[in-house]
Amino acid sequence: MRSAVNKVLTNLAILKVPTRPNRYSTMADYTSWDSLTDRTFSGRHLPATAAVNPRLPKVEDLAELYERERFVESPKSTVLFSYFAQWFTDGFLRSERAKPGSTRDLRRNESNHEIDLTNLYGLRSDVTRQLRALEGGLLKSQQINGEEYPPYLCEDGVPKPEFSLIEVLRFDEQSAEKRNRLFAMGSDTSNLQVGFVMHNVLFLREHNRIARQLAAAYPRWDDDQLFATARNVLTVLLIKVVIEDYINHITPFLFKLRLQPGSFPNPKWYRQNWMAVEFQLLYRWHSLVPPTYRIRGQDVAIWDTLFETELVTSNGLGAMFEDASAQAAGAVGLRNTPPELWHVEAASIQQGREVRLRSYNDYPSWPAFRASPPSTRSPRTPRCARACDGSTAASTTSSSSSACSPRSRARTPCCRR
After folding, report:
1. Average pLDDT of the residues in 357-363
2. Can you give the residue range of the structural domain that contains 224?
3. DSSP letter assigned to residue 300
């Protein structure tokens, strides 16, 4: 009975919006063969506006809608939830990166559009190969203080030849000393913040654990088969965590969804993944970030958690997860974004305008884009929404988390205890 209910509710949840492929993409204002096949451009649910509303305020004038007046704690989520959300979505929500000598095209993305652990394995097979030990299906690793970690990327501040394809965001801004502590990992953001590092280390250890178990069970398998199978298993484990912990944590459903792949042999919604620009810009939960992080009894500033792998190696992975599970995240809503992240909010609003997203009010028939009940909004939300109209990302920050049940608090570390 539970399996049948799970199947029905999963289908109902997914089919609240039209299935892919979307008619439009950020490539052009009309549908073409190229716009239906070129996934370097982001998909879009509704066609672009003819022009950006000239009455919209300047982006910088919207800062007061985001700036934290006082820290409002989430009644539901911990720092671990925000760490996982950042790390997980970075695997498939990837706008085009700025490149020397060229202008960044905000219509484009650098995503595989898959939940494929790009964070760990990289975007391309040649990057993956540099991260592999090429023996026993393992990823390269090292021992630090008796624990397993990725290998260091650099020596004397210069990337090692074996990692010539590994990229790190803002690498040139780091000192030689800090570069020597960067890990060789799949995504250019894997070293960016301590939460990224923690999850990459965790999943590296799990990949190698699975590979060792497979090698023992199937001694005739070669390195390639062991590696590929371990990656497949780990990807399914990630999807299980996403559905049964992450999604169940953020949805209002009383029934808890579960991973049940055998129930969906060929559903109408099973289509090639293609991330939509609306989804990318809605996924801005920067108000989850607390003013400081509490690590081993010390308050650590946000800036001091960037490109600092030593926070993990010196304290241990288990201790870092314990601290993240014990600290409340911020409530998602207006006037609760830390000042350190206003520039990220501003960039999202600007991107929404440059790709000419439709007004928030043009999405009333899409349940996924409906506003929160009035009781959960800031008293000034209506005015704020009008000020940001034309930027879907800005409007949706008025939503707020609801309290979780004692049962959900007990079963997932994302909930406060």
Report:
1. 83
2. 114-245+294-326
3. E
Q: Please name which of 344, 84, 351, 348 lies closest in space to residue 203, comparing C-alpha atoms.
A: 84
Position 157 in a domain:
yes
Q: What's the total number of domains in the chain?
A: 1
- Is residue 338 in some structural domain? no
Is 50 exceeded by the pLDDT of residue 93? Answer: yes
How far is residue 86's CA from residue 197's CA, in Å, rounded to a whole number? 11
Residues 64-74: tens digit of each pLDDT: 999 999 999 99
What's the CA gap between 32 and 149, in Å, rounded? 46
Residues with Cβ within 8 Å of 84's Cβ and at least 6 positions away in sequence, in order, are 195, 199, 246, 414
For residue 33, give every residue at least 6 positions away whose Cβ sits within 8 Å of its Cβ, in sequence order, or none.
Answer: none
What does the alpha-carbon distance between residue 262 and residue 285 come to, in Å, rounded to a whole number?
Answer: 33
Establish if 194 belongs to a structural domain. yes
Measure the CA–CA gap between 150 and 144, rounded to whole angstroms.
10
Mean pLDDT of 172-197: 96
Structure tokens at 60: 């910088």
- Cβ–Cβ under 8 Å, residues 186 and 242: no
Minimal CA–CA distance to 121: which of 18, 182, 24, 206? 206
Whole-prediction pTM: 0.86
CA dist., res. 378 & res. 373, Å (int): 11
What does the alpha-carbon distance between residue 57 and residue 67 come to, in Å, rounded to a whole number? 16
Residue 2 located in a structural domain:
no
Q: Measured at the alpha carbon of residue 245, what is the angle toward residues 192 and 16, in degrees to the nearest 5?
A: 100
**For 267-301, what is each residue's pLDDT tens digit?**
888 888 999 998 888 878 899 999 999 999 999 99
